[in-house]
């Protein structure tokens, strides 16, 4: 399969999460692979905005661990039960671990599996998480070991950097599908200048959006994302609203000034505060709010108001293999160009700087890549 002595002696550099919820670079052995495994030399790995927050709340169930659920690279070695034709192939890792046999896994909802967890990331399931116990180490390292069924061979025109962010693009696809837009609908996207917001802007027109209303912190940052859209766009900067907008329905009022009848749908990536509920209040009758931000703020509306307006509220987390397959198809066809979404690149040795920038958001940072 491969020269185990060489790998054991040299080791590899990896970003490790410790039991005290800190992360640090360390040299660890290159993983041994089993009969169903693939060893990938990592060329690109994604930095996820929510990684440190999930680590802090204990969502990483196996510590210490190598973090990073987004990775792409070249297959270095395969196990005895894996097609040797994969060796040397350019691939991405699909990070979702699940049982692969339950009702959810068989109906394109594997993120709802009792054993759902993510390689190099958090665990969400309530089951035994046996696969997670073996494959909890992720891709912010020089090598990563994965089961062969989580490897996607890349189209020739897809770079490693873009391949590492296919997961985020797949999450945007999942949110857009949940919105169930009709052709020409008006869609609100909150946190539009972040990783998920920019991915959704890029893909929205493929799922029916005919007009976008982008909500972000500042006019400057919103202006920077306008070239990503393929349909007419209007923007709402929170800094332009009255200081008391969060308690006076300032955002929902502005949405209805832009589109008096209300928006057909909103995809919400806001992590805290009143913008989520006010995006809901800005919907037309029958509108849909899709939430993927993890906002803990309560929605201050009685159920009767949701009933009268016939609003749908859908929570969603993560994407499925079907969603990422759709992204890879669009990329392979040249229908989507995603390189412009990657604004920051860091060496593995400089990954702590990258994490700091992701958390501070002092720069225009959409997607960040680490190149080991």
UniProtKB/TrEMBL annotation:
Q: Which InterPro entries match?
A: ADH-like_C, ADH-like_N, ADH_Zn_CS, GroES-like_sf, NAD(P)-bd_dom_sf, Zn_alcohol_dh
Instruction: Output the PROSITE patterns linked to this UniProt entry.
Output: ADH_ZINC
Q: Which residues form the Alcohol dehydrogenase-like N-terminal domain?
A: 34-151
The Swiss-Prot or TrEMBL record lists the needed cofactor(s) as: Zn(2+)
Show where the Alcohol dehydrogenase-like C-terminal domain sits.
196-332
Q: Keyword set for this entry? A: Metal-binding, Oxidoreductase, Zinc
User: What is stated as this protein's family in its record?
Assistant: Belongs to the zinc-containing alcohol dehydrogenase family.
Question: Which PANTHER family does the UniProt entry name for this protein?
Answer: L-THREONINE 3-DEHYDROGENASE (PTHR43401)
Name of the protein described by the UniProt record:
Alcohol dehydrogenase catalytic domain-containing protein
Q: What is the lineage of its organism?
A: Bacteria, Bacillati, Actinomycetota, Actinomycetes, Mycobacteriales
